[in-house]
Amino acid sequence: MIIDGKKIAEELRDKIKSDIKKLPDNNKPGLTVILIGEHPASQIYVRNKEKFANEVGIKSIVLRFDESISEENLKNEIKKLNNDSNVHGILVQLPLPKHINQKDIIQTIDPIKDVDGFHPINVGNLSSGNDAMVPCTPLGCYYLIKKVIPNLSGLNAVVIGRSNINGKPMTQLLLKENCTVTIVHSKTRNIEEICKNADLIIAAVGKAQMVKSNWVKSSAVIIDVGINRIEIDGKNKIVGDVDFDNIYGKVKSISPVPGGVGPMTIACLLENTLKAFNKISKKI
Ligand code: NAP
């Protein structure tokens, strides 16, 4: 079975839209995205975020700054947004120019408005099992997994990749669901053997078609986070970290690339913005 991320994301957006519709016109969630420089992929991501935010009724604003903005000026812009009652979600599109310290920028965002879930307070809350803003991509993976396997308790899950934005938060979400989680990375020996024992594989590596059909058992569910651009027969193609064509008939379920995790990431950003709005509204 192919897991239809597009459809599941649409259902989530519909739910968010209907919740926002019930709010008074003068009090809707607001999302501000900060975009620095001309990074081509970032331009596309930000355009999509803005489009889908507006579609569900979130007031979305993109603040664009030149590549040369100083770290101090960027921090001041974020502080203004922290204090702006019309802004409920703040997202700084990564990567940042080299002269800006990413960690310091993330820590400048008010954790309640941190819709990317990268602030150490949110990271700590997630790993302590407290309510947290969860990073959008692993949250999207989690929803896809829950559609296919509602009860994850006791399953062997293998997360490939240990990044702060994907692998680590994914691991926390699966632990909370009582999975036995193995996290593997570039220094792990025998990844193939570890994967063979997995009921669930989440691949977040950035290596085109790395997970092969002889790595997986037939009852496995596979979530492919990777976005890799490759050339096949002179044509550019986007593929995941999983060898989809040779695996999809062999396993229980698999998410495709594109059309799997990608649409869920944006839908979860919208959900996080609504969550931030609800939390802020309760505090006032
Ligand atoms: P990242 O920060 O580069 O992390 C990659 C991880 O993979 C690292 O932990 C690395 O290990 C591990 N790794 C690299 N080569 C490996 C190998 N041969 N075997 C096992 N592990 C290996 O990447 P990321 O930001 O998490 O992104 C991963 C992929 O997801 C990329 O393709 C990215 O484009 C995609 N992505 C998709 C979405 C979406 O919405 N669908 C969102 C974000 C990212 P070490 O820690 O040892 O270096």
Give an account of the 3D structure.
The protein is 41% helix and 17% strand. With 284 residues, it is α/β, with parallel strands linked by helices. It has a 5-stranded parallel β-sheet. The longest helix has 23 residues, at 261-283. The structure holds NADP nicotinamide-adenine-dinucleotide phosphate.
Present the secondary structure layout:
Blueprint: H1 5-21, E1 30-36, H2 40-56, E2 59-65, H3 71-82, E3 89-92, H4 102-108, H5 120-127, H6 136-148, E4 156-160, H7 167-176, E5 180-184, H8 191-196, E6 200-203, E7 221-224, E8 228-232, E9 235-239, H9 244-247, E10 253-254, H10 261-283
Parallel strand pairs: 1-2, 1-3, 4-5, 4-6, 6-7, 7-10
Antiparallel strand pairs: 8-9
Helix pairs in contact: 1-10, 2-10, 6-7, 6-10
This protein binds NADP nicotinamide-adenine-dinucleotide phosphate.
Which structural class fits the helix and strand makeup?
Answer: alpha/beta
What order do the SSEs take from the amino end to the carboxyl end, as H and E? HEHEHEHHHEHEHEEEEHEH
Number of H- or I-type helical stretches: 10
- Please, what is the average pLDDT? 97
Which cofactors or ions or other ligands sit in this model? NADP nicotinamide-adenine-dinucleotide phosphate
Number of strands: 10
Radius of gyration: 19 Å
Flag low-confidence runs: none
Report the major sheet.
5 strands, parallel
Strand content: 15-25%
